[in-house]
From TrEMBL:
Gene3D superfamilies the UniProt entry points to: FAH, Fumarylacetoacetase-like, C-terminal domain
Highest rank taxon of the organism: Bacteria
Entry's family note: Belongs to the FAH family.
MF annotations from Gene Ontology: hydrolase activity
InterPro entries named in the record: FAH, Fumarylacetoacetase-like_C, Fumarylacetoacetase_C_sf, Rv2993c-like_N
Protein's UniProt keywords contain Ligase: no
SUPFAM superfamilies (UniProt xref): FAH
Protein name (Swiss-Prot/TrEMBL): Fumarylacetoacetate hydrolase family protein
Keyword annotations from UniProtKB, A to Z: Hydrolase, Metal-binding
Domain Fumarylacetoacetase-like C-terminal, chain residue ranges per copy: 84-259
PANTHER family assigned: FUMARYLACETOACETATE HYDROLASE DOMAIN-CONTAINING PROTEIN 2A, FUMARYLACETOACETATE HYDROLASE DOMAIN-CONTAINING PROTEIN 2A-RELATED
Keyword Ubl conjugation recorded: no
Limits of the Rv2993c-like N-terminal domain: 1-65
């Protein structure tokens, strides 16, 4: 099941993506965290009955597929990277950093080195506190693509990662949530202007998604709609105005965002 959040004349709605028919079937669920909780609580992971209304996928204005209360960023979690960490490394992004597909990543005049970081994101479906790894999947609704945009010349040398990662538009998510993706060996490819810049598999994560959910839930309660970014492969580099970044997760979809100069207007994707 692919769950999208899209803008309609009646406001944000959730819908089921039918990739074969290239349509989105609208649902009656609310578009906030209550909708995520409702989907996670359905039996057999089946969706509530659609309303009967459909929107062509090609013309749908997709929003970030979830409105998280918090975004937990996992750092240095790829075994093939020279800076891979033995201990759990986490940072936080505020909800105001989240944007959706096709929304611009707006650069900041405070940084000369804003970088892309393609990642697989975990979307929490059920309240989660101190769960063991073998029970983690029970609390996960699904997965989506993420770009952990980071201003590397702001605060990273002193451990001030919130400064580097927390700016508006610095957390693109989308295009939808896949409840069927196997997170054990998902191939992630990041392209800038069509050229491959990052390529890695979640099979090389130091900590699997289940272990991450478990360890983070021992530190803080995870609520429906919260998002975990699982780490990025090697190859992160600076962005420039006019660039287009795409994050592709095989079997899930592609997240695409243009890059805008600090003076450009941003599109709000609430």
């Amino acid at each position: 099941m692919d769950l999208a959040r899209l803008m309609t004349p009646d406001g944000p709605r959730y819908g089921l993506v039918d990739r074969d028919r290239e349509t989105i079937r609208l649902l009656t669920l609310p578009a906030g965290p209550d909708g995520i909780a409702a989907l996670a609580d359905t039996t057999d992971r089946t969706a509530p009955a659609p309303t009967g209304d459909t929107v062509p996928l090609a013309t749908a204005r997709l929003l970030a597929p979830v409105v998280p209360g918090k975004v937990v960023v996992i750092g240095r979690n790829y075994g093939g990277r020279p800076d891979a960490a033995d201990n759990l490394v986490i940072h936080l992004k505020p909800p105001t950093s989240v944007v959706g597909p096709n929304d611009p990543i707006v650069l900041t005049e405070l940084s000369q080195d804003v970088r892309y970081e393609g990642e697989l994101a975990v979307v929490i479906g059920r309240t989660c506190r101190s769960v063991p790894p073998e029970r983690a999947a029970h609390h996960v609704l699904g997965y989506t693509c993420a770009n952990d945009v980071t201003a590397w010349d702001i605060g990273t040398d002193g451990g001030q990662w919130t400064k580097a990662k927390g700016m508006d538009t610095f957390c693109p998510l989308g295009p939808w949530i896949s409840t069927d993706l196997d997170p054990a060996a998902a191939l992630i490819t990041t392209r800038v202007n069509g050229a491959v810049r990052q390529k890695g598999s979640t099979a090389h994560l130091t900590r699997s998604t289940a272990v991450l959910v478990s360890e983070v839930s021992r530190l803080m309660t995870l609520l429906p709609g919260d998002v975990l970014l699982t780490g990025t492969p090697e190859g992160s580099a600076a962005l420039a105005p006019g660039d287009t970044v795409t994050i592709d997760v095989d079997g899930l979809g592609t997240l695409r965002n243009p890059v805008a100069a600090p003076t450009d207007s941003r599109t709000t994707a609430a």
